[in-house]
Structures are given as structure tokens and as C-alpha cells.
Amino acid sequence: MKKHFLLLPLVSSILFSCKSQSDYNYPIPYNLNEANLKLKLDDELNEISGISLTEDGKQIIGVADEKGILYFLDASTGEILKRLEFHKDGDYEDVELVGNDLFVLKSSGTLYLVKDIMNTESGAFEKFNTALEISNDVEGLCYDKKNGQLLLACKASPKLDEPITLKEQDRAVYSFDLNTSTLNESNPVIISRKDFQEFVLANPELPKAGKWKTRFEDEAENFAFEPSAIAIQESTGNYYVLSSVGKMLAVFTPDWKLHTLIKLDKSKFVQPEGICFDQSENLYICNEGKTGNAIIYKFERK
User: Fold this and answer.
1) What integer is the mean pLDDT of 269-285?
2) What whole-number distance in Å separates Cα of residue 106 and Cα of residue 204?
3) pLDDT of residue 162
4) Which of 33, 55, 264, 294 has its CA at a distance of 20 to 30 angstroms from the CA of residue 180?
């Protein structure tokens, strides 16, 4: 009897720990542990780095690292329906539809605009050079419809040549005005290590909170959050920001307060590089294929 009495608290503790890791109820309308659709992509797309959904939800437009090719995929099967060569090979990181036009982002911060993307066969584009550079490693692109702008998320240095006081380990999101075709260089959104520190300390019940506390503390060599993709959930105005480094999804409120921080299952999210919503606000996340084929997951809005 004595042995049973001693073992029960230990068993209860283990069961509680397992439940807290797998069944934690994140305050977003998606269960990222259970995809409603899994699209296994062709080998040609093993380095897929960005995706966007057509308005009718029938096609996914994607781009792959190092290839100046746009891919049109069947949104229900992942099959390549069409390829459109638009430019020479380069480090292309994301794509975003704005109406009938498609913007393509290069890691240097250069934007390419391909007009009437669903009907063009030429791949002709207009090019916009911004003040961002390779040192910023710009990987995330999304359309902020409410403010008539694009958002560009930097994976690396937040700094430009402008005299803004920024820490090298901050992360920055810059805006590109679609009316003037100019980058707002003086007023980026800043994501700081301190934001993550305070959030984890205030929410110790989060899965991996203990590990994150260590990774986000001042003594850590690097800030373990490097944006690889960004999307806006239109109904809430919340920003969904992926970080392949650390396998995280950070959700921010419309005023850029951290709403929740989700540790992604690394067995499913091998290298999450792209994120977008469809018109019904179903969530799509694409993963580069490091040891197998690239995958796009669809999570239906609850």
C-alpha cells in the first residue's frame, strides 16, 4: 500500500505534464496539431519559400528559393498546374496577391510586381528597389488591405542607414505604401526580445515556457525569433508571424502586442517558410523539404 501511495503523485504529475504539452488551448481558432489537409509537393518545390491563395481558393501561387519561377498549384492536391518564368534565378522569399496582381519578394528587400497574374503569359514585371539590403534578410511579405500597404518582415538586422536607434537583435517589420510605391524607412514596427521575455514570464503555463525563458533572456547569444513569413487575419487584424528558427508561430494583436506564442511540432513543421489565409480564413503553412518532400498544411478555422 505504501508503494502505491508514493507512485500515484508521480503518475499524476506525468499525466498532467503530457496533457499540458499536447492539449493546451491556444487562443486562436486553429488546431495546429491536426491539419485538415496535407499537400505533398513535387521535388521541384522542395525549397518552397512563400505562398498566396487566389481569391476563389482554388489555386496556391508559390515561389521557391533560388528559382525565378512562379508555381500555380491545385489547392486541393498540390499538383503543379502551371509554371511562369518571370526573372533570373535569385533568393526569392515570398509572394503576395493584391487584387489581380502579384508581388514577389527577394531577400534583399527588392519587390517585383507581375500584373494580372492569372492571365499573363509573359512574366513581365515592374521592379521596386527599397532601402532594405541582404543584411536585413527580408523573408516575410503580406498585404495590409486596411492601410493600403505591404508589410516586409526582416529575419536578420532591423537596421537601415537611417539614424534610428535599434538594437541589432531586434526584429523589424517595414511597410511599403502601395499608393506611392515607397518604403517607410523611419517608422518600422519593432519586435524586441523584451516583448518575448515579458510574455513568457507572464504566461508560465505555456508549453515550453521554461525553455523559452532561457532562449529569450538577455544572456542568450541570439534572439531565437527570426521571422520567415507573415500574414494578417482580416477579421481580427491579428498578425501571424512564423519563425523557422525555433519552430514558432507568434500571433500579435493589431497594435503589435504579443497575443500568443506557439511551439510548432518539429516533426511536422520541418522548416516553416510560408503562411497565408484564404477567403474563409483557413490557415495555410508551407514547409521546405529538408529530408523529404515539401509540405503545405491547411488548418480550417474553428
Assistant:
1) 97
2) 38
3) 55
4) 55
C-alpha grid cell for residue 107? 531577400
Neighbours of 122 (CB within 10 A): 10
Output the 3-class SS for the chain. Answer: CHHHHHHHHHHHHHHHHHHHHHCCCCCCCCCCCCCCEEEECCHHHCCEEEEEECCCCCEEEEEECCCCEEEEEECCCCCEEEEEECCCCCCEEEEEEECCEEEEEECCCCEEEECCCCCCCCCCCEEECCCCCHHHCEEEEEEEHHHCEEEEEECCCCCCCCCCCCCCCCEEEEEEECCCCEECCCCCEEECHHHHHHHHHHCCCCCCHHHHHHHHCCCCCCCCCCEEEEEEECCCCEEEEEECCCCEEEEECCCCCEEEEEECCCCCCCCEEEEEECCCCCEEEEECCCCCCCEEEEECCC
User: Torsion angle, CA of 124/129/132/136, rounded to 10 degrees?
Assistant: 30
Q: Please tell me the predicted confidence (pLDDT) of residue 15.
A: 34
Cβ distance 75 to 61 under 8 Å? no
Partners of residue 54 on adjacent β-strands: none
pLDDT at 4: 40
Who's near 15: CB < 8 A, 6+ residues apart? none
pLDDT band at 14 (very low <50, low <70, confident <90, very high): very low
Instruction: Give the mean model confidence (pLDDT) for residues 97-115.
Output: 98
- Reported residue count of the chain is 302
| Amino acid sitting at position 64 | A
Beta-bridged to residue 287, according to DSSP, are 272, 295
Mean pLDDT of the region 203-230: 90
Please report which confidence band the pLDDT of residue 164 belongs to, taking 50, 70 and 90 as the band edges.
low
Mean pLDDT of 70-74: 98
Give the global pTM.
0.91
